[in-house]
Write a structure and sequence with these properties.
This protein has 208 residues and is of the alpha/beta class. It has 2 domains: 2-67, TusA-like domain (Translation Initiation Factor IF3, 2-Layer Sandwich), CATH 3.30.110.40; 100-207, DsrEFH-like (Hypothetical Protein Ychn, Chain: A, 3-Layer(aba) Sandwich). Helices cover 40% and strands 21% of the residues. It has 7 helices and 9 strands, in the order βαβαββαβαβαβαβαβ. Strands 8-7-6-5-9 form a 5-stranded parallel β-sheet. A 4-stranded mixed β-sheet has the order 1-2-4-3, with helices on one face. A hairpin with a 2-residue loop joins strand 3 (52-58) and strand 4. The radius of gyration is 20 Å and the shape is elongated. The relative contact order is 0.12.
Length: 208
């Protein structure tokens, strides 16, 4: 049994995926979680991997039972997911779109409560490390440079992305503005011209 109670999104899904990858077809993974959102996320993950999932309420918690599908089902599911991803990122000429660039201009994700925003940003960067495809380049500017400097709770995840080949670049003007140039811990320093050029040339650009 995998006890994922108290673990923030996306950890229950990530941990369950790793367990499933070690299991044989037909084996059942039991995951214990403490919120309905995790139940839904686990169910969708199972479907995407060609597995079956059911759940039952257990007091204040939920138990999600995931039965790993056959190798053929998992392969077919993966092939379908890959085809859907390919279709989703095709340009007008039908070609596969390439370079993925992520531009992060804040240390908070979304608008509203800053504390929640920082939690969401940390979760987002961790989630990036769990993807098969990672960005070619991640640009940090304005408040986003706080994520690449000393004291950032996301340094470990950004370092992992860099180790996997992602180019990590922080705006020098922004580092100077916040007095953080000497505190940079991962990646290199860039300028606005290079940032604009990188964003302009990106086939796929995600702005946060």
């Amino acid at each position: 049994m995998l006890d994922a109670r108290g673990k923030a999104c996306p950890l229950p899904v990530v941990l369950a995926m790793k367990e499933l990858d070690r299991m044989d077809p037909g084996e059942i993974l039991e995951v214990l979680v403490d919120n309905e959102a995790a139940v839904g996320n686990l169910t969708r993950m199972a479907s995407g991997k060609g597995a079956e999932a059911r759940n039952e309420k257990d007091g204040d918690d939920w138990r999600v039972f995931i039965t790993r599908g056959s190798t053929g089902e998992a392969a077919a599911s993966k092939e379908l997911a890959g085809q859907e991803a390919e279709n989703a990122f095709c340009d007008a000429s039908g070609g596969r779109r390439g370079t993925l660039v992520v531009a992060i201009g804040t240390d908070c994700m979304g608008q509203g409560d800053d504390k929640l925003g920082r939690i969401l940003m940390k979760s987002y960067l961790f989630s990036l490390t769990q993807q098969e495809e990672i960005p070619k380049t991640i640009l940090f500017f304005n408040g986003g440079v706080k994520l690449t400097t000393e004291g950032s709770e996301s340094l470990k995840d950004i370092e992992e992305l860099a180790a996997r080949g992602a180019e990590i670049m922080s705006c020098g003007t922004c580092l100077d503005f916040y007095g953080l140039k000497e505190s940079l811990k991962v990646g290199g320093i860039t300028n606005m011209y290079a940032i604009a050029e990188t964003m302009q040339k990106a086939d796929r650009l995600v702005r946060i």
